[in-house]
Design brief:
15% of the residues lie in helices and 40% in strands. By secondary structure, it is an alpha+beta fold. The chain starts with 11 loop residues before the first helix and ends in a 17-residue tail after the last strand.
Length: 625
């Protein structure tokens, strides 16, 4: 016998539904009203899990029923019947009404062992459609290392912005990856709201067979003070590895210690005695101060895959500045790599709770933080075959290279969630003063000129230029396109850089890469390395003055008319000497008829490669429904 309270105005139908949803067990054969305040439920015990179900659909005040067959394998792969029903039994134009239904589970309610009732609400008749984004973190395993086995999916969809009541179920229905569980099953993470137009979801991959799930064995740990032989603390330990009961438990595998103690031993024997199904273990400890080793791994997305970009090994107690037993997100802020922010898409709230009820400390903490770039580097469309930044840390280097005024604006933009970009600007001409310096240097080095170009990098906040970055605190790796028809054995390419009135010679690798930390005027040049013989003249070192080095003799040069792109050869030594004296008049950029047009339009651009597709997201607080 059981007493039930229901609202006074409930109809007999509503009373019957309430009773079977809240109090029935087993398989219901009948529910019969005896009098105004008495009902009888007849049930039979079910021996096996059901595969044939009755689903009652309560829609528009009318309840209908249908029979469905869901195999045990399908139930497992969907993570249970609740997710199966959300995906397969909610008609378009409706969503689950979680305000209705009895008991803890509203909206979709179990009715005995082989029946479910689904309460539906109709979608808004006059929706105001807006675009929403859902970020789904797909992981193939649980535990400390899950980020190394994860991918990120982004989906954009339209939904009614006036009534988002059913948006979480819509995401589950439309975007649940096959073989993954989003809202039920072994990992109970719901779709959650990040901001007004963005949602997040965690999807955990199910093993292909139920038999692949390891058997879980539990142990009751009694912590014994070695000096007094008295118990000072107790806890439980679960082992989910295949193989069943362990013979002993290593100290390094135990997850917590009583405050003020350290382990007295490396492993502890497991007794064959059980207490409520848990094997008993005496864990010996002694007085001492224990600091919790803590690893914080930072990850970013690279074409959907999560890759680790930074790892910090420290102690939780050292990070906990206010000594409250929790390393908060604010205390973690200083460890976040420059140019990134913590994403709201994560398994945890990104705090480290290294104490438990102030009685024990955890013996190890590992935290994975998924990052999103605060800004992105934008490449001009004309730069496909030109110089390109190839380092994956370009964003971080540029963010660390801002002036004080730029940094102030940058930090304000981060807090306000504004769009931040680093935009390379490439010009196919250089300042006249820099051109003189570069040509003079190339002439002294006896180098042939391919082309000259200027690189600048702008800080752009919400499409407004906030100034240039002329130098960086770390070198960026560029890759310059070298024309195939100029490549030959024994020829070396260099980049000359003019910055603040000085010219430096930068080596170019065979793949066309070179490093620079200053952005001004550049010139791509090459030298033909000759075999050394007693008769050969000494190599002219960069910066050597030919007038003070009598061993250097003028040689036949190529004089090129850049306006036409045609090539003319001359053997007039006197005219060549004029090049030495008046660089402005005679030393010109080499643009042969085969390469002039492609070099001038194709080489002089900068694109960013190796960074992947980066979405600039707004900073928001995570909201859970």
């Amino acid at each position: 016998m059981s007493e039930v309270e229901v609202p006074y105005d409930y109809t007999d139908k509503e009373i019957k539904n309430y009773i079977e949803e809240r109090y029935s067990t087993g398989k219901i054969e009948s529910i019969t009203k005896v009098d105004d305040n008495a009902w009888v439920i007849k049930c039979v015990t079910v021996k096996d899990e059901a595969e044939d179900y009755t689903v009652y659909i309560n829609k528009d005040g009318v309840e209908t029923s249908q029979k469905i067959h869901v195999s045990k394998d399908d139930q497992y792969m969907y993570g249970g019947m609740y997710q199966y029903l959300k995906i397969n039994c909610v008609p378009d134009g409706y969503h689950v009404d979680y305000k209705k239904g009895a008991g803890t589970y509203k909206g979709i309610v179990g009715v005995g062992s082989d029946s479910y009732r689904i309460y539906l609400a109709k979608n808004n008749d006059k929706p105001v459609m807006k675009k929403f984004t859902v970020k789904i973190l797909k992981t193939t395993m649980m535990g400390e290392d899950y980020f190394n086995h994860s991918e990120v999916e982004y989906h954009t969809f339209e939904y009614d912005s006036k009534d988002t009541t059913g948006i979480e179920d819509y995401v589950i229905k439309k975007f649940s990856p096959n073989g993954y569980v989003i809202s039920s099953g072994p990992v109970a993470f719901d779709v959650y709201q990040i901001d007004d137009l963005t949602y997040g979801a965690i999807a955990c991959k199910m093993p292909e067979k139920q038999g692949d799930i390891p058997e879980i064995t539990t142990y009751k740990l009694h912590y014994i003070d070695s000096a007094t032989n008295k118990e000072v603390y107790s806890s439980t330990y679960s082992n989910s590895k295949l193989g069943g009961k362990l013979d002993s438990i290593k100290a390094s595998d135990i997850i917590n210690l009583p405050v003020g103690y350290v382990f007295d031993g490396n492993s502890f024997e497991v007794s064959n005695i059980q207490d409520n199904g848990s094997y008993l273990v005496n864990v010996y400890v002694k007085k001492g101060e224990f600091k919790t080793p803590t690893t914080i791994n930072f990850y970013r997305s690279d074409n959907g895959k999560l890759i680790q970009i930074k790892s910090v090994n420290t102690y939780a107690q050292d990070l906990d500045l206010d000594k409250d037993g929790i390393v908060s997100t604010d205390e973690l802020e200083s460890l976040c790599p420059s140019g990134y922010k913590r994403s709201s898409l994560s398994f945890s709230d990104e705090q480290i709770h290294y104490t438990f009820a102030n009685d024990s400390v955890y013996t190890n903490c590992v935290l994975g933080i998924y990052l999103e770039e605060l800004s992105t580097v934008v490449a001009p469309s004309s730069s496909k075959d030109a110089a390109s930044i190839s380092g994956v840390n370009s964003n971080e280097v540029l963010a660390n290279s801002l002036t004080k005024e730029q940094k102030k604006k940058y930090d304000a933009a981060v807090k306000e969630g504004k769009k931040i970009e680093f935009k390379p600007v490439v010009k196919n001409e250089v300042k006249e003063s820099d051109k003189k310096l570069l040509l003079a240097y190339a002439d002294k080095a006896d180098a042939e000129v391919v082309n000259a170009f200027d690189i600048e990098i702008e800080l752009v906040i919400d499409d407004k230029n906030e100034g240039l970055i002329s130098e960086t605190d770390g070198k960026l790796t560029f890759k310059v396109a070298i024309p195939e028809n100029l490549k030959k054995d024994g020829r070396k390419f260099y980049v000359l850089r003019a910055h603040d009135g000085k010219v430096e010679k930068l080596p170019v690798n065979e793949d066309g890469t070179f490093e620079t930390d200053k952005f001004s005027s550049y010139m791509l040049v090459y030298e033909d390395v000759k075999a050394t013989t007693p008769e050969s003249r000494p190599e002219v070192k960069p910066g050597t003055d030919t007038e003070t080095n009598p061993a250097v003799k003028p040689e036949t040069k190529l004089a090129v008319k850049p306006s036409t792109g045609s090539t003319t050869t001359t053997t007039d030594t006197k005219k060549n000497n004029t090049v030495k004296k008046d660089v402005k008049k005679n030393k010109k950029v080499n643009t042969s008829t085969k390469t002039s047009s492609t070099l001038f339009t194709g080489l002089l651009g900068v694109s960013i490669i190796g960074l992947g597709a980066v979405e600039v997201l707004r900073r928001r607080n995570k909201k859970f429904n």
